[in-house]
Amino acid sequence: MNLEHTRSLTEEIKSEVRKVIVGQDGAIGLMLTSLLAGGHVLLEGVPGTAKTLLAQSFAAALSLRFGRIQFTPDLMPGDVLGTNLFNFQTNQFVLTKGPIFTEILLADEINRTPPKTQAALLQAMNERAVTIDAAHYPLGDAFMVIATENPIEQQGTYPLPEAQLDRFLFKIVIEYPERDAELEIVRRHGHRPVLPKLDEFGLRAVAGIEAVRESAPPWLRLRFPRK
Q: Which residue intervals of the chain are DSSP H helices?
C-alpha cells in the first residue's frame, strides 16, 4: 500500500466534493473511511445542512452508482427490495428490482418509516446481498448505505432499533457551517432560486472502485476481491 497515493487520492476526492459542499471536510473523510472499511454511515442533522447533496457528490466523485429512497410511513419492504411480477407473455415471474440495487444508497430520513421497512436493509447492510422469494441476489462489493435522520422532529418517527444502529460504522453529526463557510455558500448559491443539478458544478469523477481497491490497506483487500 502506497500511503502517498492514498493521501493524494483522498485529497482529490475531497477537492471535487468541495466544488458542491462547503465546510464538511471531516464528514467527507469519515465517509471515505467507511467505504474503505466496508461500513455504512448515518448522517444526523437538521434540514438544510446539505446531507443529501453530500451523499450525491460523494458518489459522483467516486464514479459509483447512486440511488435514493425517501423513507415515509407508508413505504413497504417491497418498495425497497423489489418484487417478482408475473409475465403473461413468458408465463414466468420476473424480478422488478428495487432501488436497493445500486452502489451508494441514500436512505433519506430513515427513521420516518416503520421498523418492518427499516428491517429490509438489515441483510443488505450486513451481507451486501438480499433475499427475495428464496432467491439470493448479491449487491456488489461497493454497496454502501448512507442514511439520514433529523434529530429535532420526532413526531411521526420510529427510532432505529439497536440491531439497525449496529449496522452503521459511523454516526456523523452534520452541524450548521461556520460563519465563513456560510458566507461562501451564500456567495455560490444565494442568487439561485433552486439548487442546480449536480453536473452544473463541474464535479468530475476522480476515482472508481478499482482505485479504491488499490488504495485499501492489505487487511481490507479481502473485501475487494479481484474479478
A: 3-17, 25-37, 51-61, 77-81, 115-118, 122-127, 162-165, 179-189, 209-215
* Bridge partners, residue 100, by sequence: none
d(CA 81, CA 91): 22
Distance separating the N- and C-terminal Cα atoms of the chain: 19
More confident residue, 190 or 48: 48
50-70 pLDDT, tens per residue? 899 899 999 998 888 999 999
Report in angstroms the alpha-carbon separations of 56 from 41, 51, 52, 173, 187: 14, 9, 6, 17, 21
In the numeric block, which cell numbers belong to residue 123? 441483510
pLDDT at res. 167: 92
Q: What whole-number distance in Å separates Cα of residue 166 and Cα of residue 119? A: 12
CATH number at residue 192: 3.40.50.300
Number of domains in the chain: 1
Residue 208's domain spans which residues? 3-223
Q: Nearest CA to 50 among 180, 198, 160?
A: 198
